Structures are given as C-alpha cells and as structure tokens.
Amino acid sequence: MESNSDTKTEDRRRVGLIYDERMCRHFTPDGEDHPENPNRILAIWNKLQSAGIPQRCVVLSAKEAEDEYIAAVHTKNHIDLIKNISSKKFDSRRERIAAKYNSIYFNEGSSEAAYLAAGSVLQVTEKVAKGVLDSAFAIVRPPGHHAEENEPMGFCLHNNVAVATSLLLNKRELGINKILIVDWDVHHGNGTQKMFWKDPRVLFFSVHRHEFGSFYPASDDGSHIMIGEGPGAGFNINVPWENGRCGDADYLAVWDHVLIPIAKDFRPDIIIISAGFDAAVGDPLGGCRVTPYGYSMMLKKLMKFAQGKIVMALEGGYNLDSLANSVLACVEVLLEDKPIVGTSEAYPFESTWRVIEAVREELSSFWPILKDELPSKLISKQAPPIQISTSDSDVEDDDGTHIVSSDLEKAVQDVVQPFSELRIGVDSNDDVNAICAPWRSELSNTDVWYATYGSNMCKSRFLCYIEGGQVEGMRKPCTGSLDKSPPKEILWKTFSHRLFFGRDQTKTWGHGGVAFLHPESNSQDKAYLCLYRITLEQFNDVLLQEYISSLDTSSPVFDLTDLDSAMKKRYISPDVLKRGWYHNVVYMGNENGIPILTMTCTLSDVESFKSGKFQLCAPAKEYASALVRGLVGAKLLSEEEALAYILEASTKPL
Ligand code: Q9C
Ligand code: ZN
C-alpha cells in the first residue's frame, strides 16, 4: 500500500520535550538582572511553539526528582540545603548562604525549580533508555554541570545530568552499560567530571574555554591532562580552548578528530548532552561564535551512535535569540525532518589544531585511533584561497579530468575539506560517509537538471559519472557517484545561448577545441542541451569526478546555499572549481520546478576568448563526433544537421 501522511506520522521519531513554567520561579531575590533568568527557557519555549514543534513531539510534564536519585551524586548536606533553602525559615538567611557560594543565588522558587530540573532530565533519560522515546530535550533551569557533590556553583544547584547518568548506571534492568556525556557548554563541566572521574562506564567529554585556567570556573580541572583515574583513566576528555571566538569550524574539527573517533571506539549505549548554548554567537558570557547550523551538525554527527538515543539537557546560554534558535535547530535534528542548511567559516584557528593535537597525544594510549598523525595539510589552518589563473592549461583538460600535481591536490583538499577527516571516499562504508559527510543525506532530497552540451550529451559517457565505468574519450575509469541510481529523467532542450569551441588542445582529446556555452543568453543563438535529472548529492559527485578528479570530500562543492545563490545571481563559481575551465555553474531556469544547472566558463573568460587572449579553436575530429553521437543518438538531429550545428558553432565569430 502507498504510504500516506497518516502512516508517515508513525514513522517519525518520538522526541520527548519537557518544559514547566515552575522552573521560571527561580530568580534573583533582589530583582537584580542576571544572565541565568527565567526568560531563557521562556524564550526557548516560545520559539519552539511558533515553529510548531511541540505538536510534533511528546510533551511531558515535569516531576520533581526523588531524593534517592539525587543522593547518588550529592551529599546529604547538599540535598538538605537545596531542599530547604526556599522554605520560610530560611527567609532571613537565604542571601547570606548564597553569598558563601561561587555564582549562586536563591529565592523562594529555587528548591522546586532545582528538583524539577533534575526530575525532568531523569524522566526523559529513563524513557529514552527504555526506548519509549527515541530522544529528548529537557528545557530546564537552573542548570547543573558546575554543581559538585557538596557544592552548588556557577548558577547550578543539582547536577541534573549526573543525577540522570547515575540512574542509568543503577537501574541495571535498563541494559545501559556505557554512557557518553558530551558537555558542549562553553564552561568546563567540573561537577560532572568529578562525579565520574574513576568510572569507565561513563565517558565524559567537555569542550570549553579554558585560557590556561583563567576562564570560569578557572581551575586546572578543565585541562586536557585531566583524563580520569584508576579504571576511569582515559574516560575523561577535556578540550580546552586557548582563546575565545571559537566557532563552527573549531568545534567540528574537534568532533571529527577527537570526539567522533573516540565515540566509534567506545560505542555508547546512550548519549547525554550537557547542552549549554553559551558558546553560541552573540552570547554575552561565552564570547564564541557557534551558529545554530554548527550546533545542528554537532548533534547530527552524534545521532549516528547509540541508535540515536540522545538526551539533551539545557545548561547555559544567555543570549535569548541565539539560545532559542540553537535549541530549535537541535530539536529539528532530533525530529530528523529537515535538511540542515547553513554555512560556517572555513577554518579552525591555529590554536585549535594545537589543542586537538595535544588532546590526541594525551589520550592516544587509551584510544589507539588517535595515534595517527593528523595530515599536515589539514593543520595548515587559514590557508588563503589558492589563486590559479584560468589559462593554466596543465591543470585540467577538456572535461576537467584533473591532472594532479601532488601540491595541487593538497591545495584542493584543503579547500574542499577544511575541517573533516581525509580519505573518506567510495571505499568507505555508508555509515562512515553518513557520519563524516552528512551533507549527502541533506542533498539527496533535492533534484536538479544537470544540463550538458559537450561530450556528456552521450548518455553512456555521462552514466560513467553516476554508475562508474569508462568509455572511449575517458582517460581512466570513473568511480561513479555514491548513489548509483540512474537519472530519474533525461530531457533535451534548446537554449538561446551561444555554443563555441575554445583551447587548442586537451589531454583527453588531443589537438582541437572543446565546447563552451556563453553564460549569457542571446535570442540569435540556439544550443542543444541534454538534461539529466539527478540529485544534488549526485551532482556534487559528478563535479568531483569531472572537475576535481576526486570523491574524497566531506563537504559538498555545491550545496543548497550555492544552489540558492546560483538561482538568484544566475551563476556562481565555487572556490574549489576556480582553477578549472568549467568553473562557472550557470542556472538556466527550471523545468517542472526543478532548477537546470550547467557548467561553463565565466563571462570574463568569454571576453578573453573574444580578445584572443584565450584561443578559439575548432574541435578535434574525435570530440566532434562524440557530440554528433550524442545529438544523433537522441534522435534529435540527423547526422547532417548535427555536423552543420557543430560547424557553425566552431566557425562563427564570438
Ligand atoms: N567573574 C553556566 O553556564 N561567571 N554557568 C562568574 C565571575 C559564572 C556559568 C564570573 C558563569 C557560570 C551553567
Ligand atoms: Zn556555561
């Protein structure tokens, strides 16, 4: 039976959400402004509501945690303090007690809020562990990760994540043996670290501003040499930033080169994220620059583990807009219902590579995968974009089959994959590709028409880029695209664009010119194009093989943002293609709502052809006959007509 929208609802992932306005009743007693205030969770909830999120989630009501669970990580003394601090009998002493602690306030609502925060994280964690929910987000406050066994601190009363983690460890019937805690709050999760310091069942990972021990909570506990102790040695991982301003590229580099390799080895049964959003761009405390897109990528990469069993518990995050937008981006990832769209700055800081290398070194005896040295080309950080003139004919031949000088290849890879693992290609399994190249699933949902006017008008030739293989006029076999499904449709169309032939020789075809299409239309002109309807993912693989000679990338050459700007501006030149002759992706309009894209030279190249700086040249015989074969094979033109068409294109002045 065909699936309809009703059955689809059941396929959807069950994502738990908890929000309770009673957690807004914890605020500063004197009414003083404070970054950790009730508007934080209110802003999140309002944002999710206006995006229609709660209706698509399992919304649960918060319950206070029972003391027995809190007692697994906090002292009796601590429990008594938090339980009683809001009661009447503390009215006169409350503020004086708070002042004894580091960055703590209490009011009449604090106890209940703290019990609800811990109870909420407990509740969803148990449900995710049981499989009643696939994943969950607990929108809670006060936060928890700074709270230690016997000490509230850093706006944190109960250590919510630690309480929930202990529940998993203690309820053996849940079958959870290995827990990964990812603490991406901009501050070090000192409390959580201490609670599982010697426990190999809990892998605690924290990435935070450290600045050599001067950033809050300002101690050496957040240093990368703090790796755990006894049986827990190697199961505590700190990534301490040397400076602020870290952004998506820095975080994703740490994911790709520290967290994800270790997670693959550790194979957690569940992941709990201490999800602070104070590393978000615009946060007044964090001074970092992670975008909602960055957070969604960080989360997406983690969803490949533990069958997607992920619990997110709110920690910090003090810019209400960044906070709400980042949480929304994450919940959308948990719902798995939308491709992730966005862009990041390209390169991590030099200091980021230094930190990553230090962390890998420190932990390599526990996680052998970290012993591999990072390729030096990867670490060569903010390399400026490589400038290579379009007249460099040694770089690329007619169809762009890349003639690789090894320096050039390194340069291309630096640009193609600024912050991801190298050597992810057709040989890797899909899982690895999905983890390291999540752009694939994003781009596999969008179709484009790839419009060809050269030798790819021959279907058998074009299919090599999809299915793999080699036909004559190819210098080596193609690997094909990762998704080998054939084009959904093939369509011929004429366009009012000028076809012409340029360059005096190419590696593939020898002497003679190859075809270009004038990027601008002109009503006098007429060109025949063969359109292949493929996915944007396949389009990227075609570009990689045809123009870069590689499938070795973990970021796309041409993504949804590029598509969007191509459709707005009519043409764009992705950086990685800039060295080639066919580096201009031209939007040729749409067919049935699907964008038509072709590859050619730029307008300024056309000017160079006109001025004689670049050479116009009739095609070699073999190349011309490939075009004729395409046109005739499609029964579009007779052989005579096809020959006349090519003769005209190669003799008429530009
Ligand atoms: N100079 C969380 O994000 N800052 N806590 C104190 C003293 C405290 C942050 C500054 C920051 C605590 C959960
Ligand atoms: Zn924080």
Task: Outline the secondary-structure elements.
Layout: H1 5-11, E1 15-18, H2 39-50, E2 58-60, H3 67-70, H4 76-84, H5 94-100, H6 110-130, E3 135-138, H7 160-170, E4 179-183, H8 190-195, E5 202-209, E6 236-241, H9 248-266, E7 270-275, H10 292-302, E8 310-314, H11 320-335, H12 350-363, H13 376-379, H14 406-416, H15 430-436, H16 439-443, E9 447-452, H17 459-467, E10 489-495, E11 497-502, E12 505-506, E13 510-511, E14 514-521, E15 527-535, H18 536-548, H19 560-569, E16 571-572, E17 584-591, E18 594-600, H20 603-611, H21 621-633, H22 639-651
Parallel strand pairs: 1-2, 1-3, 3-8, 4-5, 4-7, 5-6, 7-8, 9-18
Antiparallel strand pairs: 9-15, 10-15, 11-14, 12-13, 16-17, 17-18
The structure holds N-{4-[(3-aminopropyl)amino]butyl}acetamide and zinc ion (ZN).
